[in-house]
Amino acid sequence: MTVRHERSRPVDRRVRVQGRPVDSCPALPPEAERGSVRRVTVVGEEILSRPCQEVTGFGSPELSSLIDDMFLTMYVADGAGLAANQVGVGLRLFVYDCPDDYGIRHIGHLINPVLDLPGPGDRRLVDDYEGCLSVPGAGMTVPRTDRAVARGFDKEGAPLLIEGTGYFARCLQHETDHLLGHTYLDRLSQRDRKDALRQMADRREEVFAQRAVKAATLNQ
Question: What is the structure's pLDDT at 13?
């Protein structure tokens, strides 16, 4: 999922890491400092359209390295969230660095997530802009619930419960969709889907060039 253009990523403000409040966190968290940039898959590639497999091996160096790489890849692509199949790995895992509508920055990863959404009587759908790192250069309005709870595990296998409101709730829903083999395009009408794909065709090379410049800057 892409960062809202009108919202910069806050530094040293209210922050929750893995759902817990902390005093501050740098713009580039430790995971990203350790990571390497991976290629982001693009809509149309088969791995994005099939459900991901559950993670069964926790606490491994390989899993930690994947999370580190996903964090750095997300920042290079100017993302607010990134699922494992977006870097070509078919596992139920995503990372995020996303603000909610109250100015709180949420940072973390979640493995094998299960999403709880409000029931029909409590549900409020919000139409808001949504973009995706695997649909480069495109953005459309997508209805999502304004609250979401995601349950899963951290990389060591400890249980996590992450609550989201506003744009962060949208991020949790967007990334969980990826792990089920869906992109936000699947929630659009046929007409809007064609519009998004036209946007991507027009802008993808510009987006790829911007990512390359940012990756080169971080490597200096």
Answer: 57
State how far the Cα of 211 lies from the Cα of 220, in Å rounded to an integer: 15
Beta-strand pair 147-153/81-83? unpaired
SS3 content of the chain, % helix, strand, coil (to 5): 35, 25, 40
Structure tokens given for 160: 């996590």
From 46, 175, 205, 206, active-site residue: 175
Q: Which domains can be identified in the chain, with CATH numbers? A: 15-218 (3.90.45.10)
Catalytic residue check, 175: yes
Spatial contact of 107 and 17, defined as CB atoms under 8 Å apart: yes
For residue 153, the cross-strand partners are 111, 159
Q: Where are the alpha helices (DSSP H) in 44-165?
A: 61-76
Contact (CB, 8 A) for 95 and 67: yes
Q: Give the rounded distance of the alpha carbon of 54 from its chain centre.
A: 18
Helix (H) or strand (E) holding 74: helix 61-76
DSSP code for 40 = P
End-to-end CA distance of the chain: 26
Give Dmax over CA atoms of the chain in angstroms.
53
Q: Which amino acid would we find at residue 129?
A: Y
Residues 50, 179: Cα–Cα separation, whole Å: 8
pTM of the prediction?
Answer: 0.94
Percent of the chain at pLDDT exceeding 70: 94
Count Cβ atoms below 10 Å from residue 40 Cβ, excluding itself.
Answer: 21
Phi-psi region of 49 (alpha: psi -120 to 50; beta: other; left: phi over 0): alpha
CA distance 192 to 189: 5
